Amino acid sequence: MANIPSRIGNFEVTRQVGSGGMGSVYLGLDPELNRQVAIKVIREEVHDQEVLDRFFREARAAAALRHPNIITIYASGQHEHQPYMVMEYVEGDSLADIIRSRKAVPLSDKLSYIEQLCAGLHFAHRAGIVHRDIKPANVMVDGEGMLRILDFGIARVEGSGLTQDGALIGSLNYMSPEQMLGRPIDHRSDIFSVGAVAYELISYQQAFKGNINDGLLHRLPHEDPPALGSLVPGLPAGLEDVIAQALQKLPDNRFQDLAEMRAAVAAVHSGTINADDRTVAISRPNIPPSTGTVRASTSTARSSTTKVDSRFDFDNVKEHFPDFTIPAPPPPEDDAPESVPLAAEDPPTAVPVSLSPAAAAPPSSTTDPPQTWAVKSRTSARPSTVTPATMGATRRDTTVTKRPATASRPPTATARPATGTIAPASSSRRWVLIGVAVVAIAAGAVVALPYLSGPPADPLEVQRPAIEAAMERFRVGYRNRDMEAVVAAFPELPAPVRQTMQRSFDNCIVYEVTFDQMNVALAQADAAVAEADVRSAHTCTPQSGGRQTTAMQHEVYRLRKNGEGWVLSGLRAC
Predict the structure, then answer these.
(1) Predicted pLDDT of residue 73
(2) Whose CA is closest to 8, among 20, 23, 21, 64?
(3) pTM greater than the 0.85 cutoff
(4) According to a count of CB atoms within 10 Å of the terminal CB, is the N or C end of the chain lower?
(5) Cβ-count burial 392-418 (b if 16+ within 10 Å, e if not)
(6) Could you give phi then psi for residue 448, rounded to 5 degrees?
């Protein structure tokens, strides 16, 4: 086409955005829906009927597929005897652009692209369509990271003889060995191409370089590409094996479907995300490290203790807690200490250690001197209690030594309680805390009371999600031209309606159904019966490749409750 046309069919042409072997691509505008579209037009100098058949086959194959990772076809037709196809416009880069510019794309994003490529092609394979020309130029990525597969122009539809297995059509560097050698192919040929694209996306180097003149026709079917790990050191575990399996020469040695390959890539992807999340940096105040540590032991049914390391650095603690002091241990008694065996039914008393900056108040002169309990380390797994008075002791013992109080040695005015004791909280503080808790509970009850005593839920609002789900199952079956799914959602579908729907399914390669407005209501006499007032749009893309047609309908569907869900049971036009 020498000049850029101003209009193609009912679509306005803005500018040319690309060209290729099949033709030119224009950016256009759909004036009815005010949306941008891409319009692909066959080149003017191409008049070969096989090429024309391939073009319309691309339109029919792609239009029959509805998947987030496959380009959406809106319309097709002929303009001045030149076939065209109108599709969604994707603003972004192709994988070929990304690879050519060696764009700095995170590995996580690359793995996401491979997963999406597997998902879209697997959907096409389930519909019986083999792409046959997967390459970086035929895969687009939009600004949100969503991938689209383009150009089903040489797709082979199962059961169709329009593209013979022996024809060498496709891009040589990404073609499977069986396709290059002219052998029969199936969906596993696309798996090899996905492996070649993945290899190049990860390494920015083709798995099979060259062209037909430098031995590519021999190397690709018989030689393996360089090890991916040698090109990209530090790849996550398993990724090289996944891509190598996709590039196996024999189809039986590859993944048997792209769902299997996608799961393998997802496992690698998950591992890279988990590896990134394993280390979390937490900022701490700039406190010099001390030579001693304080470790809280675990609480058990027998004891709850605090263990103090024998290398306790008093000077370092004193620097950060100026008021903390450790009194000298009491002088030894003349009398021999009383030894009490440690009994299972008499567990040792835990003595917590306080590092509070505030100094403990001296005891009253009328009270007995505090008792010091020293529990030596035992051979059992139970934690032990150690006081500063016994720090540095290394001998093992199974007894508790108790120094009895004596009235003949009253404490001096400067005496302090033994380290490890904590002054009990005052009674007033306990009552303040209790009072605050009571007020909080009362306030919560006052706030929650209106919700607890509110009116019962509206039955319609309770059932609305299930009713709308039933209508959506019916709509999806209708859209996919799946009569079995339609009947499952509408068991009592009248025979005349079923016959009309079947004719639409047979005449339209794509039958799109959208519910523009839907109002739901429960029957007053029976809460197990509902009605859905629906205004819908039905769009047909004819099998002949003609222009799409849209019909608006207004219908009321009757539904009945079926267990926990709902099914359609009647229909009347409005």
Answers:
(1) 87
(2) 23
(3) no
(4) C
(5) eeeeeeeebeebeeeeeeebeeeebbb
(6) -80, -20
pLDDT confidence of residue 410: 47
For tokens 């209690």, name the residue. 385
Neighbour-count burial of 135, counting CB atoms closer than 10 A to its CB (0-12 exposed, 13-18 middle, 19+ buried):
buried
Q: Nearest to residue 87, comparing CAs of 141, 40, 20, 120?
A: 40
Amino acid identity of residue 367, one-letter, is T
DSSP state letters, 141-154: EETTS-EEE---TT
Alpha-carbon torsion, ordered 313, 319, 323, 326, to 10 deg: 20
CATH of range 461-573; options 3.10.450.50, 3.40.50.150, 3.90.220.20, 3.30.530.20: 3.10.450.50
Beta-carbon neighbour count of residue 526 at 10 Å? 10
3 state SS of 543: coil
**Secondary element (H or E) of residue 538:** strand 529-542
**Per-residue pLDDT tens digits for 119-148:** 999 999 998 888 888 999 999 999 889 999
Superfamily (CATH) of domain 92-276: Transferase(Phosphotransferase) domain 1 (1.10.510.10)
- Rounded CA-CA distance 473/488 in Å is 9
Q: Which residues of the chain have pLDDT under 70?
A: 1-2, 20-22, 44-47, 51, 55, 58, 153-170, 273-428, 445-456, 509, 543-548
Closest CA to 348 of 309, 314, 390: 390
Largest CA distance in the chain: 122
Residue 378: strand, helix, or coil: coil
Give the helix, strand, coil percentages of the chain, each rounded to 5.
35, 20, 45
Provide Rg for the chain, Cα atoms: 40
Q: In terms of Cα–Cα distance, which of 84, 205, 195 is closest to 134?
A: 195
* Residue 415 near residue 362 (C-beta atoms within 8 A): yes
Q: What three-state secondary structure class fits 210?
A: coil
- What's the rounded Cα separation, in Å, for the pair 560 and 468? 12
CA distance 187 to 257: 8
Q: Where are the domains of the chain?
A: 7-88, 92-276, 461-573
pLDDT tens digits for range 409-464: 444 444 444 444 444 555 667 777 787 777 778 777 666 665 555 566 788 888 98
Of 518, 554, 552, 525, nearest in space to 537 by CA: 552
State the pLDDT at residue 436. 76
For 7-88, which CATH superfamily applies?
Phosphorylase Kinase; domain 1 (3.30.200.20)
d(CA 377, CA 391): 12
Q: Could you tell me the CA-to-CA distances from 492 to 555, 567, 569 in Å, in that order?
A: 16, 9, 5
Structure tokens at 80: 């001045």
